[in-house]
Amino acid sequence: RRRIVLDTDPGIDDSIAFLYLAAQPDAEIVAVGSVHGNVSSRLTAENALRLLDLVDLPHVPVAVGAQRPLAQPLLRGGEAVHGVDGLGGVAGPPSPRQPVPESAAEQLVRLARQHPGELSVLALGPLTNVALAYLLEPELPRLLREVVCMGGAVAVPGNITPHAEANIWHDPEAAEVVLGAGFDLTLVPLDVTLRTWAGAAWWNAVAQVDHPRARFACEVTAHYIDFYKIHPSDEPGCPLHDALAAAVLLDPALVRCEEHRVTVELTGAQTRGATLADRRGFPSPEDPAARPPIRVATEVDAPEVLARIHRALGV
Ligand code: BDR
Ligand code: CA
C-alpha cells in the first residue's frame, strides 16, 4: 500500500494518472501539490481540484506550488500540448473548493515530518516543489519512503528540445538538486513512457464505457492525440507518460531499471535540461564523493500497463 503526495501539473496525461490512482485500492492520495509546467501553478491547482472532485476524493487537500522555476524565467509552451486550460479545453466549471493556504513545498515538508518514512512522492511535473522542500528540510530524503518522477530522456531523444524532456527542461536546476539529493528515487523517462502508447483501438475501447470518468478520459485526451500526430509512431494515439509513473509507483515490476548516477546538463547551449546517465558501470575514480545512483526505468511491460489503465477506466 502506498500513501502518496502527488506533485503535478495537470495536464492531460496527469489527469489519466489521477483516474488510475483513484481506482487502485492500494493507493491513497494524501495530498496534492500543483506546479508550473503545462500551464501556471494556479491553473494546475484548479485542475487538480476538479480532478479530485471527478474521482470522488473531495477531501484531499491541494496546495498551490511554485509559480516559477528556481533559476530561469518561467517557460511557456505547454498550452500547445495540453490546451490553454491545461485540460484540452474541457476543464469545465471550477471546483467549489479552494486550495489550502500553505505552499506545496511547505505541505510536503510538514507531511513528511508528521509521517516519517511513510510517504511516497509521485512527481509528474517540473521538480521545483520537491527541490524547494529539500532546501527547506535537508532530511527530506530520509523522511520520505521514495520518490518516483516522470521525467528525463536517458537513451532516447528529448521531446521539448532535441535533448531535453519537458518536465526537466521547465526547471533544470530543480531537477539537478533532486537527482543529487539522495532520495530513494526512480526516474520514469521518455525511454519507457513513449512506449506506453495508447493507440486508436485502445481509445475506442474506452469510448465504449458508459461512465463519467471514461467519458472525461476520452474528452480530455482528444486534444493530446491531435498534438501527437507530430510523433513518428506507427499509430495515431498518445503516450501515457504520467499514468505510467503512477503504475510504476504501485508496482515497480512493470519496468526494468538500471542504477545510474544521473546529472542534469545546465550549461549546454543545445543540451540544457538533458539527463546524463553515467552508464560506464564503474564509479568515477576522479570523484569518490559522486552522487548516489538512482533507478532509471529502461524497459516497460507496456501491454500490461495499458491493460491496467484500461481496467481503471472501466474497460
Ligand atoms: C511530461 O511533460 C508534460 O507535458 C506531461 O504531462 C508529462 O508529465 C512529458 O514530457
Ligand atoms: Ca505532467
TrEMBL record:
CDD domains: nuc_hydro_CaPnhB
Gene Ontology CC annotations of this record: cytosol
Transmembrane spans: none
SUPFAM superfamilies named among the record's database cross-references: Nucleoside hydrolase
One protein family per Pfam: IU_nuc_hydro
GO molecular function: purine nucleosidase activity
Coiled coil region boundaries: none
Domain Inosine/uridine-preferring nucleoside hydrolase: 4-305
UniProt entry tagged with the keyword Signal: no
Keywords: Glycosidase, Hydrolase
Biological process (GO), any one: purine nucleoside catabolic process
Name used for this protein in its record: Purine nucleosidase
